[in-house]
Write a structure and sequence with these properties.
The chain has 314 residues and is of the alpha/beta class. It has 2 domains: 172 residues, Periplasmic binding protein-like II (D-Maltodextrin-Binding Protein, domain 2, 3-Layer(aba) Sandwich); 134 residues, 3-Layer(aba) Sandwich (D-Maltodextrin-Binding Protein, domain 2). The protein is built from 13 helices and 14 strands. Strand 9, helix 7 and strand 10 form a beta-alpha-beta unit. The termini are far apart. The N terminus is likely disordered. This is Phosphate-binding protein.
């Protein structure tokens, strides 16, 4: 199976040169990329969270580790699972493919954990089908509701359009701890129950494999996972608009365009030079790496605002 890490192998050839040059230039000109007060930064940083954000962060960790003594670990428990660890105080940052929920923010406040939200990139949640599916090439939001909302029946493609095959639909969805599930639930299902027949997984590669293996399958996940496997799965246009960098950035790919975040513990930045150093590297290079792994760079003013916020935490 081809997953995003295979895609990264080719993308990193170019991005490594770009990011490496950026890191070297930053270290030489500012003296802060891998040093603090003239001394090399050491220590550890721990993060967790969204599988959608993982391609960006894990690639940045690989690049960063090549030029730093800081040890960075990034788990992939899904957005909800990542916030649980963040609330428990076991991580320094938490990756998310949706904004933090009110109840999560309340739990952090109760735990005495102040945090800052950083925008990393934009994503287009991508609906995919098997390459043999030559009927469901363009779906409306209403079609998606009919397909994915539980109504007590065994759903067939012909239920959505009588001209489509009289065969059962096979469903693959991110798990309930995933921010991608939450986002889809909000904008497509509108908080209704998802079909009970869906196979759920926090690992997007499991979803990719499922769609690859069944002509009647349909699934959804982040845009980068589609790009990494586009030779074996097919993206569906939504309301006549296909997901690509231009439509995601412009917002034309609606309502499935969305921002990607990381949330950072303020005290970790203030008290641990390793956390500050790594987050500085992330903000400086998130845009370039987002493009390298298949997402969409945010406007530069967003990264400038992120950097200003980070500096304010020291």
């Amino acid at each position: 199976m081809k997953n995003w890490k295979y895609f990264m192998g080719t993308a990193m050839l170019g991005s490594a040169l770009i990011l490496g040059a950026c890191g070297e230039e930053s270290a030489q000109s500012e003296g802060t990329s891998n040093t603090e007060g003239g001394e090399a930064v050491e220590g550890s940083v721990a993060g967790d969270g969204s599988s959608t954000v993982a391609p960006i962060l894990e690639a940045l960790v690989e690049e960063y580790s090549a030029q730093s003594d800081v040890q960075v670990t990034v788990g992939v428990s899904g957005t909800g699972g990542g916030f649980e660890k963040f609330i428990a105080g076991t991580t320094d940052f938490s990756n998310a493919s949706r904004p933090i929920k009110d109840e999560e923010a309340a739990q952090l406040e109760e735990a005495g954990i102040d945090y800052t939200e950083f925008l990393l990139a934009y994503d287009g949640l991508t609906v995919v089908v098997n390459p043999e599916n030559d009927w469901a090439t363009d779906l409306t939001v209403e079609d998606l509701k009919k397909i994915w909302v539980e109504d007590g029946t065994t759903k067939k493609w012909s239920d959505i359009n009588p001209e489509w095959p009289d065969e059962e639909i096979v469903f693959y969805s991110p798990g309930t701890d995933s921010g991608t599930f939450d986002y889809f639930n909000e904008v497509i299902l509108e908080e209704a129950d998802m079909v009970s027949a869906a196979t759920l997984s926090e690992d997007d590669n499991v979803l990719v494999q499922g769609v690859q293996g069944d002509k009647n399958a349909i699934g959804f996940f982040g845009y980068a996972y589609y790009l990494a496997n586009q030779d074996t799965i097919k993206a569906v246009s939504i309301e006549g608009v296909e997901p690509n960098n231009e439509t995601i950035e412009s917002g034309d790919y609606s309502p499935l365009s969305r921002p990607l975040y990381t949330y950072v513990k303020n005290s970790a930045v203030a008290e641990n030079p390793a956390v500050y150093d790594f987050m500085k590297y992330v903000i400086e290079n998130a845009g370039a790496m987002a493009e390298a792994v298949g997402y969409v760079t945010a406007p530069q003013e967003e990264y400038d605002a992120d950097m200003e916020a980070l500096e304010g935490l020291k």
